[in-house]
Design a protein that fits this description.
Elements: E1 4-10, E2 14-21, E3 27-34, E4 47-48, H1 50-65, E5 75-82, E6 88-90, E7 100-101, H2 109-119, H3 122-129, H4 138-148, H5 150-155, E8 158-160, H6 162-171, E9 175-176, H7 178-181, E10 187-188, E11 193-194, H8 196-202, E12 212-213, E13 221-222, H9 225-231, E14 238-239, E15 243-244, H10 245-252, E16 259-265, E17 269-273, E18 287-290, E19 296-302, H11 306-316, H12 320-329, E20 338-341, E21 356-359, H13 368-392, E22 397-403, H14 410-420, E23 424-426, H15 433-448, H16 455-462, H17 475-495, H18 498-505
Parallel strand pairs: 1-5, 5-14, 5-15, 9-12, 16-22, 22-23
Antiparallel strand pairs: 1-2, 2-3, 4-7, 6-8, 10-11, 13-14, 16-17, 17-19, 18-19, 20-21
Amino acid sequence: MADLFVGIDSGTSGTRAVVAEGERGRVLASASAPHELIPGLPPGHKEQHPGTWVAALETAVAAALAAPGVDRRAVRALGVSGQQHGFVPLDERRRVIRPAKLWCDVSTAAECAELMRRVGGPDRFRELTGNGCPPGFTASKVLWLKEREPESWRRLRTVLLPHDFLNLHLTGRVVTEPGDASGTALFDVRSRAWCEEVTRAIDPALSGLLPTLHPGPEPIGELRADLARRWGLAPAVVVSPGGGDNMMGAIGTGNVREGIVTASLGTSGTVYACAARPVVDPEGALAAFCDSTGRWLPLACTQNVTTATEMVRALLGLTHEGLDAAALAAPPGAGGLLLLPFLEGERTPDLPDATGVLIGLSPRTATPAHLARAAMEGTLCGLEYGLGRLRGLGVAAREVRLTGGGARSPVWRQVAADVFDTEVVALESAEGAALGAALQACWSWRRSRGERASVEEIADAWVRVDEPTRAAPTPDGRAAAAHTRELFDRSWRALTPVFPVHRRALP
């Protein structure tokens, strides 16, 4: 009987559960359940009820376990991936005090500025934690609660991240792990410990409200007996530490050794790599995260990838296949046409007031083909800016593994190879963070049994690249991409003073 492992990925729009067998990581079943943002909040506020995550988790796990071919009694461990940076406040009875503020909530910008001022400015903040304090991170949300909702603050006894809250539901334990904790701006990534100077700057009592750090990979505990009975599982199923969605995405793409980079081509984009040491960017373009295997995960995030290409596709009235065909009809470099794709502002580079800009529009380039190509190249130049920062700080990039919707397109892959100037390849499995959570659960269970299993060994068995999708830079594409990258970089830097002025003129 094969040992089985459940991976759970709780994202912003829903929760996915997969069941994988332990030898080769073959996914036997998967299921999803939705949850939504709370409607009607003021601009910049993005919140969810944590109870909806629990309900979605239970629905998705039950459905995956009920699939044909799944032997529930063979499940040995579960792992949870969760959206990073969210703030779940609990009272003395571990009840949720108010809805969770999410990674995409930017209502705490004033608290970010105030918190950095209290510790001596952005450079001092980065010196203390390895990271800046953007509104998306957790620290400013905690200060926001203290300043804006004092009654809720008086009731606060525990600060949790979304994946920690789900682990609490599964095991009854209040713990976190360094990967997800490193995205709070309350954590020193170098020492892998809470940063007392930052927590004191919010409140002297805050350090006592933070969860215990569990470095892993050993399990954090056993699944609650009532849940095991409800799902028909054997006793003593264990729960691994889990982690943030980027940390579990790294594991799920086999990004567990140096030289491999993962790039996600979704609505937004991420590019990150495994590093044996902390990688702190003095310019602040990279997030200096820890990973969930005992290493580090320097990461750049852009807000606009398929957001921009979907806008262009809708504008041109094309299908996804039609957009690909149009882009393929234009030459590399799009004849000098470039889209700066900052439709929703931008995070990397740090341009919160930016807007989209077309450069190089002329009668020759005003065609659907040139516009489609320019949109793809512009969004990938944004990710390449982050990749360039990784390389500049000594992180090797031997191969880029693509995930997300864009990874399925041969055109996207070739343009990515040219812009990144590196071989790119997609993966056989598209499960990403859910598979990473299941893989970590397998590793955690095997370690708890005294096995000397390494995460690299399990990832080599579980994660397979789809070789027919591999693309390498072409001579023409490489030369054109070098010019496009230079144009991208010089353009956004030149326009940086203009963006705030233009943003104020928008309705």
